[in-house]
Design brief:
This protein is an alpha+beta fold and about 240 residues long. The chain has five helices and 15 strands. The protein is globular, with a radius of gyration of 17 Å.
């Protein structure tokens, strides 16, 4: 896997995708020691070392579909689950701990985007909203996407209401759900594939160059935090993308 250990407590996952050289991206992982160390210090260390630019746009994520264009005007994290940028030396930051981080760039390396896409955000159309906003900013852009680590299809158990919400949008979504039968209360349960749902949503807005989608945060404890596995938030993974 494309992991880079920068220090005993700082490991990055670097996306493997054909992004232009002026596009930089990385995910800051759980410390290799397995300790639950605060990851704000490694993030600052990345800035201090020059790996990250000094300016980072953080979002107040609410599992919605709001999109903002990054810039110097924000004095506090905007309430949104996706952002895009055309300026250099400004990183977009997404927090996840089972939800799906999705990074975007165009083939020319002049436009980037990042989205926080748990099942609620996916269902609400956060990926479509971000792609639409990016294309409005640069109409001729040809986009590619990287699907980062999320809870995998063998671990993500959901109720029938989640499946119904996606099928209300498209019957194609049925491909992303495997029935498990009823639970102890008689409620139907399913295994849900976030990666499949994201691919479907991206295809609906003509984004077909898609990479990543090969990890499970709940299964791979060494590198990833997982809300479900850890029974609550210990810390977050941090996905970043920027232009140089």
């Amino acid at each position: 896997m494309p992991f880079e250990a920068l220090s005993p407590n700082t490991t990055l996952l670097v996306p493997e995708w054909p992004a232009p050289p002026q596009v930089r991206a990385a995910m800051l992982l759980r410390p290799p020691t397995g300790e639950n160390l605060p990851s704000s210090s490694p993030l600052q260390a990345l800035k201090d070392s020059g790996v990250l630019p000094p300016s980072v746009l953080e979002l107040k994520q609410i599992h919605g579909n709001a999109v903002v264009e990054a810039g110097p005007a924000f004095l506090a994290p905007p309430v949104a689950d996706a952002a895009f940028a055309t300026q250099t030396h400004l990183a977009l930051l997404i927090y996840t701990a089972d939800c799906l981080p999705v990074l975007f760039c165009d083939e020319k390396g002049t436009l980037i985007g990042a989205a926080h896409a748990g099942w609620r955000g996916l269902c609400a159309g956060v990926l479509e909203a971000l792609v639409t906003a990016m294309r409005k900013r640069q109409p001729e852009s040809r986009l590619m996407a990287w699907l980062g680590p999320a809870i995998g299809p063998e671990k993500f158990e959901v109720g029938a209401e989640v499946r119904a919400a996606f099928l209300a949008h498209s019957q194609e979504a049925a491909q992303a759900f495997i029935p498990l039968g009823p639970d102890e209360q008689g409620q139907l349960k399913y295994l849900c594939n976030l990666y499949t749902l994201a691919r479907q949503r991206l295809a609906s807005v003509q984004v077909h160059n898609i990479y990543g989608a090969q990890w499970c945060t709940a299964s791979e404890e060494k590198h990833f935090y997982s809300y479900r596995r850890d029974h609550g938030i210990i810390d977050h993974l941090r996905s970043l993308i920027w232009l140089v």
